[in-house]
Structure formats: C-alpha cells, structure tokens
Amino acid sequence: MGCVMKKQQSGFTLIELVAVIVLLGILAVTALPRFIDLQTDARIATVQGVSAALEGAGSQVYAKAIIGSVDNLAGGNANAKVVINGVDTLTAYGYPTFDAMESLVQLDAEFVKAETDPAVVFGYDRLGTGAIVAGGCYAQYTEATTTGSGATAVLIAPIVTVVTTGC
C-alpha cells in the first residue's frame, strides 16, 4: 500500500503577500506627512538659533561697552563703538546697532537680510522673491533706545523677536 503524504506548505501565498504590501502602503501614507514636516521643524530651529546668536552677540558687545565706558552713549555718536575681532562695532547705549549686527552673527547666504531703522531682520525667502514675507520665518533685532531724557531717561534693551508662522 502506497501511502502518499501531502507535503506541508511553506512560505506566503499570493493573497498574503498582497495584503502585506497594501498594509505597508497604508502605513507609509499615514507616516509621510510627519516626515515632510521635518523641514518646517528644521527651519524653526534654525531661526531660533539665529535669535540666540543675536542675543549672545548683543550681550558680548554690551560687556565690552561697559568695560570701555561707552555703554551710555547714544547711537550715531562717533565714540560709541567697541572693537570685536579687530573690527569697530558701532553701538547704541552699549548694544550693537542694527546695521552692525550682520557682521557679528555672520549668517549663511540662505538667509535674507532686511534693514528697517532701527531694526534688522534675518529670515528665509520662502517665495523666491529675495525678500522676507511678513508673517514668514525670521528673527528681528531692534536696537537699544531710551525713553525720557536727562535724569529720567530709561534704557530699553534691544529686542529680539522670532516669527515662525510661515516656516
């Protein structure tokens, strides 16, 4: 009596293979938007880094201005400057002026700079026009100023503003 034994099947059937491929496709489609959003997160982190660089440069210049006793001179005063890396840096009340800030932070060429006295803006050109769009992706440095005059004058330290709504 010849007994024929059925061989045990091994491996995947075609239907199982198609089901796995469809499942992987669905997972990829749901995960893709999260990975695409990493560019936005990277731009936001970079702009926040620029903001920190602006604040750090301002603090270092202010410390040198105090040492050099030029921390109480208004912007535009010929003596209101400190030497940073061998270069005269103009100051307003001891902090860097808005136009001196570019040489202090030395940003990459990917950043666009826009000056609007008494502020300078460093940001991304998201539209390819060579300009920073309002509500875009930038850090703004507004130089120090004072309110009042004489004995009632109050120093307003520089303000660094970060806008990331358009990143």
UniProtKB/TrEMBL annotation:
PROSITE patterns: PROKAR_NTER_METHYL. Keywords: Membrane, Transmembrane, Transmembrane helix. The chain crosses the membrane at residues 12-32. It comes from the Bacteria. This is Type II secretory pathway, pseudopilin. It comes from marine gamma proteobacterium HTCC2143. The lineage of its organism: Bacteria, Pseudomonadati, Pseudomonadota, Gammaproteobacteria, Cellvibrionales.
